[in-house]
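Hi everyone,

Forwarding the result from last night's run.
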Amino acid sequence: MDVIPRERRRGPCLLSGTALALALLCGSAWASPDGASPKSGDPVMRLLEERGVLSAAGTDSAPTLLSQVRDKASDLVLTAMNFIGVRYRRGGGTEDQGFDCSGFTRYVFEHSVGLVLPRRAAEQAASPGLVAIPMEDLKPGDLVFFNTMRRAFSHVGIYVGDGKFIHSPRTGEQVRVEDMRIAYWAQRFNGARRAPQTTEPLRPAQ
């Protein structure tokens, strides 16, 4: 079990502070230039609407850094976003079962870029073919590792940009986005790994 503190505020699947992190994957502002709601025809914007992020953040927010990420984000990150709200389950490795941290990353990598990772977080960190990446060079789709059980590489998630990562935290919680810069995560960061398959740009929406 991953030993991670419970959040003080909990929503149906996201904390209010994570709305921006997911928004960074949109590549457009919350509202259209005339102030109307985002077009539901855009699959990414539709996903955010379905997950309740737009209604939580509001459509009248000031412009953000949304446009920076669409050309850098991978299909892998968008796949990971699809599982926000799925419950944690120790040993779980599918959406129906629920996910533990490494089960989540393994499932996302396999079903987005076709890379089958080892089952445990420490094994994923040592996986052949993955490249060690310093924190300052993180890109969306990189695996990020933490020491949450007094041993290296005992927790893993996927970096999504803007200092945020998506992961399956612990028993009683759900897949969510959190900020790596808060003290708890910053103090426990062990390193990051990148797979060549995650460096390809996201295909434009049709």
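Residues 1-44, 52-72, 201-206 have pLDDT under 50 and may be disordered.

Cheers,
N.
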